[in-house]
Design a protein that fits this description.
The chain folds into two domains: 67 residues, Ribosomal Protein L25, Chain P; 169 residues, SPOUT methyltransferase, trefoil knot domain (Alpha/beta knot, 3-Layer(aba) Sandwich), CATH 3.40.1280. 32% of the residues lie in helices and 28% in strands. It contains seven helices and 13 strands. The strands form two sheets. Strands 7, 8, 9, 10, 11, 12 and 13 form a seven-stranded parallel β-sheet that branches. A six-stranded mixed β-sheet has the order 1-4-5-6-3-2. Helix 2 runs parallel beside helix 3 and helix 2 packs parallel to helix 7. The longest helix is centred in the middle third of the chain and has 21 residues.
Length: 247
């Protein structure tokens, strides 16, 4: 069943009004008809509904609520991804796939070895595009919540946030002792955790950056015997963390 997200203000009197780009998608791409059912999620609350289409126009799609969905697709583990800025197409892939898997937030980070520099005048448009990619991926994977794509930050700002997490993991190709699996297994299953992960850009992390992160409480881990691309590493980390800890 196709899923769409709406604002709280679009839900009123047992009816949900779908507007914007989703109207064209429903009418012209999916060619849905009056009487068909779709799933609708509330962006603000995470609540979900099964609804039936009652009207289709060029401006909106009117639906009646059939029932509220009680099950949740969200995890008991919050995983926030801090991603060293890679090239644009790679960032889009990272956002799409980590959203599907279950990431809660994705935060671009400017680091020493970043080839790409996100200028202030471009940042707003980039964030808007990335947020749309997260929305589309959340709809496809039937997430209850859309991950937030936050504004870019630098390493100093990342370090200031480490203390907010139960565990903050950094992938580093030169780490030889602590594996991702070992770090995860120190946590108990079936509990709520807030976990931060940091992955570097194409050139990886600088040794000075690693030392600074470690001094401030980050756990440096290896992802295995093979070196992963910057777009593969975050997908691997999010999927392994949720596999091990999700109830």
């Amino acid at each position: 069943m196709q899923k769409f997200f709406v604002e709280t203000k679009q839900i009123e009197n047992e009816k949900i009004t779908i507007v914007g780009e989703d109207v064209k998608h429903i009418a012209s791409v999916l060619r849905m008809k009056i009487g068909e059912n779709v799933q609708v999620g509330n962006k603000q609350t995470g609540e979900n509904y099964i609804v039936q289409i009652t009207q289709i126009s060029t401006e909106n799609v009117i639906t009646n609520i059939i029932k509220k969905v009680e099950e949740t697709s969200e995890s008991n583990v919050q995983v926030d991804l801090y991603q060293g800025l890679p090239k644009a197409d790679k960032m889009e892939l990272i956002i799409q796939k980590t959203t599907e898997i279950g990431a809660s937030k994705i935060i671009p980070v400017e680091m020493t070895r970043c080839v790409v520099k996100l200028e202030e005048k471009e940042a707003k448009k980039k964030i808007e595009r990335w947020q749309k990619i997260a929305l589309s991926a959340a709809e496809q994977s039937k997430r209850d919540k859309i991950p937030t794509i936050e504004n870019k930050i630098n390493l100093k700002q990342v370090i200031e946030k480490i203390k907010e997490y139960d565990c903050f993991l950094v992938a580093y190709e030169e780490e030889q002792q602590i594996t991702l699996k070992q770090a995860i297994q120190k946590l108990n299953k079936n509990q709520y955790y807030k976990i931060g992960i940091l992955v570097g850009p194409e050139g990886g992390l600088d040794s000075k950056e690693i030392a600074l992160l470690k001094e401030n409480g980050a756990i440096i881990v290896t992802l295995g015997k093979r070196i992963l691309r910057c777009e593969t590493a975050p997908i691997t980390m999010v999927s392994n963390i949720l596999y091990e800890l999700e109830s």
